[in-house]
Amino acid sequence: MKTTVVGFPRIGENRELKAATESYFRGDSTQEALVGKGKQLKRMHWNLLKETGIHLIPSNDFSFYDTTLDTAVLLNIIPKRYQELKLSPLDTYFALARGYQGDAGDVTALPMKKWFNTNYHYLTPEFEKDTEVKLAGTKIFDEYTEAKELGIETRPVILGPFTLIKLAEFKDTTEQEHLAALIAAYKEIIRTLNEHTAQWLQLDEPYLVKDLSEADRELFLHIYHELTLEPRTIKLLLQTYFGDVRDIYGDILALNVEGIGLDFVEGKQTADLIAALGFPQNKQLFAGVVNGKNIWRNDYQQTADLLNVLPKEQVVLSTSCSLLHVPFSVEQEEFPLEVAQHFSFAKEKLTELTDLAVISSLSADASANERYKNNQVLFQKKRVIENQLLTHKIAGLAAEDFQRQPLFEERAVVQKQALSLPVLPTTTIGSFPQTREVKATRARFKKNQISQSDYREFLKEKIADCVAFQEEIGLDVLVHGEFERNDMVEYFGENLEGFLFSKNAWVQSYGTRCVKPPIIWGDVSRKRPITVDWSVFAQGLTTKPVKGMLTGPVTILNWSFPREDISIKESTLQIALAIQEEVLDLEANGIKIIQIDEAALREKLPLRKSDWYQEYLDWAIPAFRLVHSKVAPQTQIHTHMCYSEFADILPAIDQMDADVISFEASRSNLSLLDALNAHHFQTAVGPGVYDIHSPRVPSVAELEKTIKILLEKISVEKLWINPDCGLKTRGEKETFASLENLTRAAVQVREALVYETVRE
Q1: pLDDT tens digit string along 570-605?
Q2: Terminal Cα distance for the chain, rounded
């Protein structure tokens, strides 16, 4: 039985790609150096897969920023405003990803959105009326050739045309106007790879696991009928992941493709579809049986049982999705053996695939295989001791534990009087830049190179400077800057029972932004107060309100590697009770505004609408309410959400019963506003007025224009003014300039409103 993976992590074993790319951004290295590092990483990854025994190795899954962006650039889907900059191809590419502000012009980045139900972000392709779709690049061919020169035959990978269309935005144009050209460009890719004598081409079509309309089905079938008309020797793999293809499985079976990739981990109905409708004898089934999104070992017996009901002679063992979503290797960690043996990162998953290939070939004799026996011993052990007190507490929760009193309208009146904020109150989302000095000092503290008292004094100085700056520029609601925090989830996990932390388990979130998700190992409870001291210290420096800053239970769960031995609902409720204790401690210590971030609320939302409530929202929204249900009416609860499409779940978000919600909006052209009005959204809102994921500084005039647009859609009584996300990844200079412009713009609009009121 052959083996493969859908894709492999590209950031490198030690985040080498991040370091090289950021060096290029700073002007410290050349384009040649960056490209050279990319070639080195690709060579290392291809060789690793080959040496591990993976038979079919992917290429073109590498990217300097994002593979969806790579596909758009390859096909010349580059909006005119970026082409007019007249930059080099690489710098145009990065302008699309990060925005650009310089001698050549001033443009914002393309919209950034979450990649289906993951914490990875993709850049949204943008079609314009005069976009000339054509094969304009050579990356996919170059990488195939690079590997071939090393003696490695690879399977080029590219985002499929159907998913590309469904994820793209069309500005003053329609998909139909570009469809023929798009199909022609993909045909040229197939022809060119055919000429290169490539054996396979993988077309990623994850959109097929979503709810498909009849129009979607017709569009997909039209595209693939046209794509596969011409004779070819190269084999086509239609690859799906993140769910099952129940809406179109029968149609897929009839396609003129040689391979079909199906997800058996998140695809709840995948096995049933095959049992009911069969699988063609003339195609290969790329079976995604090894979890590409979580880090626990594969249960060989469970997987072997699944393989026994599949047509083995046609199966290629694969991962459920790209290994982009897991860290590089457990070898980089310092876990005790009794802990480490339960984990499987990207490199270890390669070995799992080769093990399973051997085990599946042994049939009834699998029990004699040493690796199989060791795996079964591992799964027979009891891994953690249950916290029975916590289990009983969750079982005893009643409806009133999830409901805050009084209702929103009454609280709004009480809070207006208690806080005395001006109209259009200004604030930030929470974090301030994590400078090299901050990171270096934290690292020295963790290595015991400075004392705890010296570290605390350093943090106090940073907080004092941060508060003083905010007062100086005139922000209305302040934050303490979160200098003590390495990551918004990891920091809380370090102060909760039940979490484990890695040394080097980095995962790409977007571009050069990598995160190191905690691992939920056991039952979760709070060890001690987490944020109270820093919030109280900051509040003591000013008469203005300072927000207490917390991460919500759903985000902590979604941005961690979750347990697989209990439900994510139960795990989230455990976290919610722990954060509830923190909320009540903050309130008891005089913190009047508490922000509970749920940046990742939408992340594990099922991709099919029919599953949204029963499988997720019916417990995720109450989990958030549980956190703040016991606070007093005058305590104002904020939350924040970013880089997801929220319009379709706004009724559920309103049910979170927060007092203020800030959204990412700057990269979505403020399109969320119409949806807010359509749903009669009751909560006060702070749509982000500028993009913090770009280094460009918005002008006062630009921000004033944005605020006025917001006021056309949102009543002045409900509008807050803030950036679209936290500021930890930005530099101080650009951050300070942007925030100063933000407050000036808000004050000018505020004064104009007062003037208009007086005139009237």
Answers
A1: 999 999 999 999 999 999 999 999 999 998 888 889
A2: 79
Q: Which run of H or E residues covers position 107?
A: strand 105-107
DSSP letter string over 381-426? Answer: S--S---HHHHHHHHT--GGGG--SS-HHHHHHHHHHHH-PPSS-B
Q: b/e map of 75-87 (b: 16 or more CB within 10 Å)?
A: bbbbbebbeebeb
Amino acid, res. 732: E
CA distances from 643 to 265, 618, 682, 755 (A): 25, 22, 21, 36
Q: How does residue 719 score in pLDDT terms, banded at 50, 70 and 90?
A: very high
Three-state DSSP at 192 gives helix
Q: Who has greater pLDDT, 366 or 268? A: 268
Q: What is the pLDDT of residue 760?
A: 56
Q: How many CB atoms lie within 10 A of CB 230?
A: 10
DSSP states along 19-51: HHHHHHHTTSS-HHHHHHHHHHHHHHHHHHHHH
Q: What is the mean pLDDT of residues 158-179?
A: 97
The enclosing H or E element of 636 equals strand 636-641
**For the segment 276-286, what is each residue's pLDDT rounded down to a tens digit?**
999 999 999 99
pLDDT at 674: 79
Q: Is 177 helix (H, G, I), strand (E, B) or coil?
A: helix
Antiparallel, parallel or unpaired: β 121-123 and 126-128: unpaired
Put the strands of the sheet holding 284-290 in their side by side order. Answer: 2-3, 315-319, 284-290, 259-263, 235-239, 200-204, 154-159, 57-59
What value, to the nearest 5°, has the Cα angle with vertex 396 and ends 390 and 400? 120
CA atoms within 13 A on the CB side of 759: 6
Give yes or no for a contact between 355 and 300, defined as CB atoms under 8 angstroms apart. Answer: yes
**pTM for this structure?**
0.90
Average pLDDT over residues 460-473: 98
Range 2-380 classified under CATH 1.10.10.60? no
CA-CA distance, 390 to 523, in Å (whole number)?
A: 8
Question: CA separation (Å) from 11 to 49, 194, 515?
Answer: 16, 29, 12
> What CA–CA distances, in Å, run from 261 to 144, 404, 419, 607, 725?
21, 47, 56, 18, 36
- CA–CA dist 731, 736 (Å, integer): 9
d(CA 720, CA 424): 5
Residues 105-130, mean pLDDT to the nearest whole number: 94
Model pLDDT, residue 12: 96
Q: Which of 325, 628, 638, 693 is catalytic?
A: 693
pLDDT (0 to 100) of residue 603: 85
Angle at 38 between CA 34 and CA 44, to 5 degrees: 145
Query: Per-residue pLDDT tens for 242-253?
Result: 999 999 999 999
> Going by DSSP bridges, is the β-strand pair 121-123/112-114 parallel, antiparallel, or unpaired?
antiparallel
Task: Note the CATH number of domain 407-417+435-663.
Answer: 3.20.20.210
Task: Please say whether the beta carbons of 519 and 561 come within 8 A.
Answer: yes
SS3 content of the chain, % helix, strand, coil (to 5): 45, 15, 40
CA dihedral over 296, 298, 301, 307, signed as positive or negative: positive
Over residues 513-527, mean pLDDT: 95
- Per the annotation, the verdict on 693 as an active-site residue is yes
- Cβ-contact 516, 118 below 8 angstroms: no
- Residue for token digits 């951050």? 735
Residue intervals of the chain classified under CATH 3.20.20.210 are 2-380, 407-417+435-663
Residue with tokens 């916290």: 387
Which pLDDT value is given to residue 668?
A: 60
Pick the residue with more confidence: 265 or 603?
A: 265
Using the CB atoms, write b or e for 569-608: b if 16+ within 10 Å.
Answer: bbbbbbbbbbbbebbbbbbeeebbbbbbbbbbbbbbbbbb
